Amino acid sequence: MTEREQLAAAGRAAGLRLTAQDVAYLLPAWKRYLGLVDELRAAMAPEDGDEGD
Amino acid sequence: MRAIEALTKAPMAEIARSLRRRTVSPLELVDAYSRRIEAAGGLHAFITLPGERARREARRAERRLARGEPGALLGVPIAVKDLFATRGVRTTAGSRILKDWVPSRDAAVIARLRGAGAIIFGKTNLHEFAYGVSNANPWWGVARNPHDPRRSPGGSSGGSAIAVVAGLCAGALGSDTGGSIRVPASLCGCVGLKPTFGLIPLEGTFPLGWSLDHAGPLARTVGDAGLLLDVMTGMDTGRRARRTATRGLRVGVLRGPIIQKVQPRIAQQVDAAAAALRRRGLRVREISIPEMEWTVAMQLVTLRAEASAVHRRWIRTQPRAYGADVRTRLQLGALVAGADYVLAQRMRGRLRAAMGRVFQEVDVVLLPATPITAPLVGERTVRWRSGEEPVDGALVRLTAPFNLTGLPALSVPFGRAAGLPVGVQVVGQWMDEARVLAVGRLIEELAEA
Prior knowledge:
A: 2 helices
């Protein structure tokens, strides 16, 4: 599955009606979003590590 | 006629005094502003013009003034961002979806303005549903900066900032979810105040992000912003600010990586403001808040999720009724995982705690309101030595931390960079608007000196 197909499938699962153009606009925004979430996760990692299982 | 024209750009407090002394009538003032709006039509400041309704309100105000009735804003024309519900007047939120919505009740803050005698003077343009900072509205016109119409006024309260700066009203009401009052105030050259979270009621205001939304004034002077704040809160903060001593106050000038990506001429103006405050007896030092580094990530995750919740139904049933940029943001929000939202809120807690520690050491924090001056309409990226940054992200990078924490923050014009206005931002402790306004007033005075 390509990135676009994955995103289109996620959109359908969320109940969105995405056109091919929507997916084309959404893909760079989605990648940026994932990058920012990774930054947050890395910033919180020391605290998460302290919590243990 | 010439005297009225001059009064249209005067501070609101002076306008209120002239009305009270009856050297000008509300109707003369309303007509003068209406002529100016007509001449400034290309700026797209308004979605709904004041029209005959404002003239009726002016006649009523005239009778009340003649009877000597009280009212801090009696007969004063105040423009309102078109996401505050106004009884009997179309309220679009800058959208096509709500193009025909005529509320049956006023928003709480509108009721307070009316209670003080203000004339609700038209509904100003905004980014569609307030969800963006360019104010390039696909349905109601691309708003333009009064200093240079090739440039953006910023947003989302861009129409309100234009109206204040171009002398199309006496003062204005805006809302701020990531910087939507302070960004256009900074780019257009007026005063913009985002008070403490929750201080101004939001009932009847179309929401964008519940945990980030604030209402507040845009004005030509800090004193006017204080006056509007008092009317909108029913408190006396603006009046207290006038009596608040500034000598000896502790000022923290923000440093650190988040400040490195700022246009040099803007950084110079902030340093000049800090140096001038020091000369006036304030104790200035440098501070850093490392937790601010994750501002854009925290803001983006939080706002995408919250705005998507507001628009949950429409983005699924009528996605084509949105402009392309807002549609993409809302669709992205529908994909935000609950775990990501929680992660952002945990980081937000860290930022709030860090701010709490900072305010044990200083009374106010000083930083640029925006890292860039007004971009050209349609400009999408800013180039820094370290790489590119999206314009919309850059514009809120230094304002959004105070939406995430709910701290009061004021943008005051201070000097220019390449001929364009620069906004210096003053941030205070929660509920300490009086000191924020007092320092802001001093900066305003120093800018004029």
